[in-house]
């Protein structure tokens, strides 16, 4: 059976989101926690701490992710996640395309330095006592870079390799490069998981027809555009308004409990609506009002109306 993973989406799929999702929808096999960036003092930020605490992740299989190019920082952080929080599996971020990250040779920026990357991996695989998986793009600038990068990954006991077949300079533009993904699938000695642009049941079917041997898929924005996607994939049950409303309310109440200030709470909700709104018929005017809302009461009012007056497409 297909294993489905929830992608880490920094700023969105924190523990409040994961818990709301878990309470309303079909469970996914692994939830990836948005990245932790080790700092010099070795402390977690309060966001990072809340996100990895076992009591905030009950009943879910969660995998924390580390974003760094320093093997010492990786090992120190992994050790803490293992000993203080009980994690047995950790993911390495070699995919993040953001300018501030890549300028420090991290995320997909690290892919442009294969020799240093190999040394880094030697360092972490030699000493780490947890299982390490990798989430990667296929290069910094050109998909041609990936053959060399994959040779490096193949030297290590990587738990699994999650491939988002775009290069850094694509950001989220263009399309996942399925030719290079096929090449990687043929050449990888490590179990491969696919990630990228599976937004609907049709995308899923098209992908699995082309790659019948793939049995691990990670879903990111697809779960924001249609939070019922995993249930649709697994049980052919399309999303209905009641469950979506329950999920929305769960998420909203979750944020209201842990965040303070209408604007802070609404900032989070608006981010989700940026992805979710098009699942409704005639959504534009509601989406605009949601975006403009500054008070919780105004937000609640327009959301109620949207659910009452429109259907799911
Ligand atoms: C807002 C946002 C935040 C993201 N944060 C992370 C992150 O913390 N770690 C990571 O590995 N990838 C991150 N990603 C990338 C996603 O995990 C995923 O690889 C990407 O969205 C492609 O998958 P999709 O097409 O299914 O969304 C982020 C993407 C977005 C849009």
Structural class: alpha/beta
* Secondary structure tally: strands: 9
Amount of helix:
40-55%
The fraction of residues assigned to DSSP E strands is 5-15%
Provide key terms for this protein.
313 residues; alpha/beta; 9 strands
Record the SSE blueprint.
Blueprint: E1 3-6, H1 15-24, E2 30-32, H2 46-52, E3 62-63, E4 65-66, H3 71-83, E5 89-94, H4 99-102, H5 114-127, E6 131-136, H6 146-153, E7 161-163, H7 178-187, E8 192-195, H8 201-210, E9 216-219, H9 221-225, H10 229-235, H11 241-258, H12 262-276, H13 284-292, H14 296-309
Parallel strand pairs: 1-2, 1-9, 2-3, 4-5, 5-6, 6-7, 7-8, 8-9
Bound molecules: flavin mononucleotide.
Describe the fold and architecture:
- The radius of gyration is 20 Å and the shape is globular.
- Helices cover about 45% and strands about 10% of the residues.
- Strands 3-2-1-9-8-7-6-5-4 form a 9-stranded parallel β-sheet.
- α6 (about 145-155) links the parallel β6 and β7.
- It contains 14 helices and 9 strands.
- It has about 325 residues and is α/β, with parallel strands linked by helices.
- α3 runs parallel beside α5 (about 115-125).
- The protein has helices spanning about 15-25, 45-50, 70-85, 100, 115-125, 145-155, 180-185, 200-210, 220-225, 230-235, 240-260, 260-275, 285-290, 295-310, and strands at about 5, 30, 60-65, 65, 90-95, 130-135, 160-165, 190-195, 215-220.
- Bound molecules: flavin mononucleotide.
